[in-house]
Amino acid sequence: MFNRHFRALGVVGMLTAATVLPACDSADTSSAGPLSTFAGASTEDHPEWSEYTFTLGDNGGDGSEELAKVTGVFDNAPYKVKFARFDFGPPLVQAAATGEIDLGYVGTVPPISGAATQYGFKIVATQHGADPTRAAENIIVPKDSAIQTLSDLKGKKLAIPQGSSAHGLALLAVKSVGLTPQDVEFVFLDPAAGAAAFKNGKVDAWSIWNPQSAIAVRDGARIIAKGLPPIDQVNNYYVATDKSLNDPKRRAALADVLTRISKLFDWAQKNPEEYAKAIAKETGVPIEDARATVEAYPFAVGPVTSEDVAAEQALADAFFEAGELPKSVDVAGITDNLLPDDFDITKQG
Predict the structure, then answer these.
(1) In whole angstroms, what is the distance from residue 238 CA to residue 290 CA?
(2) CB neighbour list of residue 273: distance below 8 Å, 6 or more residues apart
(3) Has residue 104 been placed in a domain?
C-alpha cells in the first residue's frame, strides 16, 4: 500500500528499493500456545518437507509473526517459516515475483500493478471482509479543513501511497463524483511521508489505511470517504511466488502454510485483545490504535471466488482506463487457488 509518480517504471524502482527486515525462524516451541497442536500436515506424512523453509511476507506489521509465537500455530509444522516485513504491498508483490518470499498478503491494487509488468506470482487466496459496513482504509482531511465531500477535492492535493489499495480507493472515490485524476492533484507519498505531509498541511487530504487512519482520526482528522463498496473492496489478497506454486511438493506444503495462517487469524479475531497486542508490539502503535485496527477490519481467509475476480477485474480496468497501468490485466490469468472451493477454517482441526 503506497505512493504515486509511478506509471510502470516508477513502480519497478520502488519495488527494487524495498527493504526487507530480518525475522526469526518459526515460533518458539518452549511453551505451548493454543494452536500448537493444530492438526495440519505432519512430518510423518511428509518427511521431505523438513527441508523446506518458507518466507512469509508481512505487510506493514499485521501481527502475524507475533501471533505465530503466541499461538504456536507452526510449532508442529513439518517445515520452518520466517517472516519478512514490508511497509506496503507493491514491494511485497515484487518479492513474491522474484521468489524472495513464498507467500504474503496485500491490498487490492498491488497484484494488478505487479501483473501489468509481468511478474511471476499468482493470487492464491482472499481475506474476505466479514462486515461490509467497516472500512480498513479511508480518505481523511484535517479537522479544520473546509473540505466536506469528495467533490470538494477538485483542485486539492490528495496524498496517496502509489500502487496501493489506498490508491485504488482514491481513484474510484473521485470517479464516483464525476472527477478524474486530472481534477485532483494526486501526491504519491509512502505512508511515513504521507503522515508527515498531512500533519504539516502540505497536502489537503490523505487516502490511507489503518492504523494510520485511526491515529489521524484520534488526533482530530475527519473521514470524508470510507473504503467500502461500491468505491472499494472489503478484501485483501494473498499472493505466492510461481517458484513454489510450480513445484508440486512445495505447492502442497505451501497450502498447509496457508491453512495454518487461516487458523491463526481465525483465532486472532476470536481473541481481539491478543490480536491488538500483537499488532501493537510489531508496529509500535499505541494499543488503542491497534484495537481500532482490529475492530475496523474483521475478515476470514478463504479461496478466491468468481466475485473476487470480477471485483479485481473492474479495478484493473479502471486503472488501465486512467492511464495508471502500461497494459490491461487479466485477473483470472493471475489467479491460482491454493485452498479448495469449500474451504472452511472453522471445520479444520
Answers:
(1) 22
(2) 291
(3) yes
What is the number of other CB atoms lying within 10 angstroms of the CB of residue 17?
Answer: 9
CA–CA distances in Å: residue 78 to residues 26, 124, 239, 264, 333: 11, 21, 22, 17, 31
Residue 314 to residue 308: CA distance in whole angstroms: 10
Element (H, E) at 119: none
The DSSP H or E segment spanning 194 is helix 191-199
Distance CA 164, CA 319 (A): 12
What CATH number has the domain bearing residue 61? Answer: 3.40.190.10
Contacts (Cβ under 8 Å, ≥6 apart) of 149: 177, 224
Q: Which domain holds residue 256?
A: 9-131+234-347
Question: What does the DSSP 8-state code read for residue 21?
Answer: B
Per-position pLDDT tens, the chain of length 349? 322 222 222 223 233 333 332 334 444 444 679 999 888 888 788 999 999 999 999 877 789 999 999 999 999 999 999 999 888 788 899 999 999 999 999 989 999 999 998 789 999 999 998 888 888 899 999 999 999 999 999 999 999 998 888 999 999 999 999 998 899 999 999 989 999 999 999 999 999 988 789 889 989 999 999 999 888 988 999 999 999 999 999 999 999 999 999 999 999 999 999 999 999 998 888 898 888 888 888 899 999 999 999 999 999 998 998 888 999 999 999 999 999 988 988 776 5
pTM: 0.83
Q: How far apart are CA 159 and CA 50, in angstroms?
A: 46
- Neighbouring residues of 296: CB distance < 8 A, sequence distance ≥ 6: 134, 135, 136, 210, 214
Whether residues 149 and 289 fall in one domain: no
Determine the straight-line distance between the first and last CA of the chain, rounded to whole angstroms: 34
